[in-house]
Structure formats: structure tokens, C-alpha cells
Write a structure and sequence with these properties.
The protein has about 375 residues and is mainly beta. It is about 10% helix and about 35% strand. It folds into 2 domains: about 240 residues, no CATH class; about 110 residues, no CATH class. The radius of gyration is 24 Å and the shape is flat. The N terminus and C terminus are likely disordered. It holds the Pfam family LysM. It comes from Wohlfahrtiimonas larvae. Keywords: Signal. This is LysM domain-containing protein.
Amino acid sequence: MNIKRLLIATSLLCASISMAATLKPDAPQHYVVQPGDSLWDIAKKYTDDPWEWRQLWKNNPQLANPNRIYPGDELSVVNGTIVYKRNFKASNNQQKGMRTVKLTPELREVPIELGLPVISYDYLRGKFVDMEIVSSEELKALPYIVGFEDNRLTGYTNVKAFVKGDLTPGKTYNVYERSTTHKGMKLDDIRKGKKKKDVEIGTELIKTGEVVVENSKDGVSTVYIKNIISRGLAASQLLIEQPPMSNIGNLYFEPKTAPQKTEAEIVGTPGMLKSVAVGGNVVLDKGLDAALSPGDLLLAQQADIFKNDPMNPSKRIRIPGQASGIIMIYKVFDRMSLGIVIESKKPIQRNMMAVTPYSDYITK
């Protein structure tokens, strides 16, 4: 039967989402913003609910946009609220000119004058997994490697490869290795309350390298291997045209609570790791179908535990699962999504639930 879960109260969750953020007893009375800070980091210094970072600035009407906080600016606690003071000298030095910071060769350039990011770029950089999730129909339509020059079994940098499919000369394509195929429920069955997982919702593709197209003729394309990620490329690996910018999108994330009553399951960890902690990636079985978007925050929830009642052995007692960490969505597909663990008190594992923070939700 369906059981209504109790609200979780742990060190991760200390106040209702509708309440204004409450300052921690040990919050610093005075703080000078440092280079490399993020609004999320600063919020954690002052409150146990960092996703309520906007609430911290509600008593500073002169600060219309909290993103316009810069290194050198000062924060003070006055009568239980945060008072913000702009250090114009430091801020002007920070904003001078129109320089940009390029995060990696594949990521979007973000102007420095945007101020502090909500989540630290240094934290995000290099932690995302380069992976696609495609439907069964998309999978069948992808071009794939059929062989290499000189009858090589493996392809390495600067070696020619041959691809079944008409590719665009001069274009760069990412090469992927097929990984796990996930199953879920039909959308109609979900609406009817059925629980059987009997339809494919997505297949993981792990990036293995990049190629540049030399020419294409009669359904076969010749490509040069531009680079490889770990080991060499292999026959049957799949190709997807490289987007003009990182397909992760803009890294200027603003963490926000996921849509109410979101109930996603952690169905995988790239690399088939048993568990992950802060900085680890997870695969969820909900995506655009659940209205998820980059920046959404979900609470990783341990499974319920059932124990025999010591006073009545014929009965079982349900012990609600405990909060394990916080997951931020960074890439969304039709029925699946990728998330990164930004806080964890316990290991995050497959088959855990990822739910809207503070929400009451139903499960079997």
C-alpha cells in the first residue's frame, strides 16, 4: 500500500521552504567577500539552508541583484539580519574592463562583471561527466565507426577511421561508447498509477574522443581522430556532431528547488561506481517529463528500513529513510537527467530517491 513519508529533519534540512532563512548561531558577525567565493558558499556560512541564499539579502533593497556582489564587499550582522556594504574601490578594480574568464576550451565564456557566481566555477569545473543519453530511436539513427586505416583494431590520435553514415566534411564529431540502457514506465502507465518498468527511457553514451570529417562518399565517411579521452577508439562506437559550445550549457547556475512532488530514482553512477560523494555524478530517471531544468536541487533520500517490532514480533515498523545529500541537476534529457552531488552526509547510491526538498511525497 502507499505510505505517506514523514518530513526529514536532519542537518541538511532545518526550516520550511516557505520561511525566511534563519541565521546560524555561529554566523560570522563580519565577513569580507573573497575571490573564489560563491553565493552558495557564503549562504552556508550564515544559514543551514544554502538554497535559500536569496533570502539572506531581503533587508538590502539597494542590492536588487545578489549576483552583483564582488570580492572586497563587506557583510555584517545587525539585529539578526545581514547588512551589505559595497567596497567601491575593490569592486571597480574587479569590474574594470571587459575581460572574460574562459573555464575550459569547451565551456562558455562568462564575463567577470557578472559578480559572484551562485555555485563556484572552480567547484564545477572538471566535475561534470561528458555523457549523452539518447532514446532507442535516436540510437538506431547514429553513425558509427566500422574500421581504421591499415586494418588497425584500435584508433588513436591522427589515425584515419571509417564511419558508416554521411557526415559533413570539416565538422567535428564527438565519439561515444554505448553504456547502460535504462528502463522505466510508460507515460500512460504512470498516469494510471502502474509501476511496471517495461519501456526503454534512455541509453547512456560515454564520450571516448573526437574526430574531424575529411570526406564522405556513398554512405561512408573518412575521419581523422582528433583526440582520445582514455584508451583508443573502437569499431561500433557512435558519433554525434559536436555543438558550437559546451552542451552542458551556461555554468552560471542559480540553484533552485526542483518542482514540487518530484520523485526521481538514482538509476546509475557514471563509471558504475558503487557510491559517490561530493563532486560525484548521478543519473536520474526523470527529465523534461518531470519539468526538471539545470540548477534544480533534489534531496537524496535513503530507502526506508523495516524492522520487527520488539514489543510485538508479529508486526513490522517502518523507519523513514534519512537525508543523505543534495543533488543539483545540470543536464536534462527527455526522460532522464544528470546531476552532481553538491552536499553529502552519507554515500549517495543507486536506487536512492531524489525528491523535492521539504516536500511530502508518496512511495510504495
